[in-house]
Each structure stands twice: as C-alpha cells, then as structure tokens.
Design brief:
Elements (H helix, E strand, L loop, with lengths): L6 H7 L13 E3 L8 E5 L6 E4 L15 E3 L2 E3 L4
Antiparallel strand pairs: 1-2, 2-3, 4-5
Length: 79
C-alpha cells in the first residue's frame, strides 16, 4: 500500500504552517500522557506541544491496538 501517513500524523501536520513562538516546524505525533490529546513534536527539535485537548474522533489511541478515541476518551476495540 505504500507510505500511508496515520491519522494522528495528519492531524499534527495540519500545524506545519502555524508559527509557534515565531518559528515554523514540521510536526510529528508524540505519545503524551493522555492518549486522546493531540500532542506533537517537531521533527528537528527536542520538545513537544499539545495542540488540542482531543484528537478527531476515530483516531487510534496508539499504534499497538485498534482502540480509538471518541470525545477525548480512549475506547476499547472489540475487533
């Protein structure tokens, strides 16, 4: 299938054109404490930033399971 970007990575990249403290970054997903927040890190810097309190519904909670975030809460997948 090629190089498909995951849904969380797409959400982080939406902020590539948004300056943070006067700088532009290429944002990548960062596994923060809350699995359903949109926390991202620049690909060339050593910090992370929470862009949103919750990811878009249907985003996977992490890459290891099929659990998804709904309204900011990680729900177990029954698949």
């Amino acid at each position: 299938m090629g190089n498909i970007k995951d849904f969380r990575a797409i959400q982080c990249s939406e902020y590539d054109d948004t300056p943070l403290d006067g700088h532009y970054y290429k944002w990548l997903p960062y596994p923060g404490k809350n699995k359903c927040e949109l926390t991202c890190k620049p690909d060339n810097a050593n910090f992370y930033y929470k862009w949103a309190d919750k990811v878009i519904d249907g985003t996977k909670c992490n890459h290891r399971t099929n659990d998804i975030c709904v309204e900011g809460v990680c729900l177990a997948s029954w698949m």
